[in-house]
Amino acid sequence: MFRHKQPTPARLRSPRISHFSSTSFLLAHRAVVYRHNGQPSDVLTATTFPTLPPPRQHWINIKYILSPINPADINVIEGVYPSKPSPLSSWWPDGSHFDEPLFVAGNEGLAEVTAVGSGVHEYKKGDRVVLTAQQSGTWASARTIPAQFVTKVPEEFSDVNAATVTVNPSTAYNMLHTFVKLEAGEWIVQNGANSAVGQAVIQIAKRRGWKTFNFVRNRPDVDLLKARLYSLGADVVMTYEDLADKTLRDQVKTHTGNKPIRLLLNGVGGKIIPRLVGLLGSGANVVTYGGMSKEPIPVATSSLIFKDIQYRGFWQTRWYKENTLEARQDLMRELARMNLQEPEHEVVTLPREENDEGVTRRVKDLFVKMSKGQYGRKVLLKVEDPHD
Amino acid sequence: MFRHKQPTPARLRSPRISHFSSTSFLLAHRAVVYRHNGQPSDVLTATTFPTLPPPRQHWINIKYILSPINPADINVIEGVYPSKPSPLSSWWPDGSHFDEPLFVAGNEGLAEVTAVGSGVHEYKKGDRVVLTAQQSGTWASARTIPAQFVTKVPEEFSDVNAATVTVNPSTAYNMLHTFVKLEAGEWIVQNGANSAVGQAVIQIAKRRGWKTFNFVRNRPDVDLLKARLYSLGADVVMTYEDLADKTLRDQVKTHTGNKPIRLLLNGVGGKIIPRLVGLLGSGANVVTYGGMSKEPIPVATSSLIFKDIQYRGFWQTRWYKENTLEARQDLMRELARMNLQEPEHEVVTLPREENDEGVTRRVKDLFVKMSKGQYGRKVLLKVEDPHD
Question: What number of CA atoms fall less than 13 Å from residue B274's CA on the CB side?
Answer without folding.
Answer: 16
